[in-house]
Give the backbone structure.
Amino acid sequence: MSEEKNIYQKLHEARKYIRTCGTKRDGHNDYSNYDYFTPVQISQLVFQACEDQGLISVFNLVRNELGYDGRLEIFNIVDPKETISFQMATAIPNITATNATQQLGGAMTYTERYLLMTAFDIKDNNLDPDTTEQTKKRAESPKENAKDELKWLNKWSDKEHTKELSYYWKVVANAKENKKTVADLKLVFKIGKDVEKELINDLK
């Protein structure tokens, strides 16, 4: 009978499974032109890896005197006393047109996602936007990007109001995640004065 693996050996095997399973990234970011694992894919990859190795992960958002911490604990199912913990500071986002519960839910979703990526060593280009060739070219030679090739970034649209608004907030969320400024966005979008005023406020 083979000896039962400890929790560190199991986590190592789980990481190895995720690295070698060959799952294709379903998400694509048009702004920086990279593919990424969607939240659903990350959840599925982690679940399958944990199922194979006899692990379970438990996430909690904890409030303290400085704000909020996300905490992820991984348990060895056959010996729950064996645990590995991961922790990161986080914050409740101020998202327009959402209530406090939705904003809290957003913080939990993003924080758990990044903790799972850290714990299970899931690498993604969205954490390093400069790895894409397109982004490098923009940073090195922004003047070479002709204005007429850039897409207008609009917050409102008379004909497709919902679609335009949804795309705008995706751009804002990506910019916040990667600490981009309005000046950075102007390298990849045409931005009118009215939208620029909105962006300055929405990126705070």
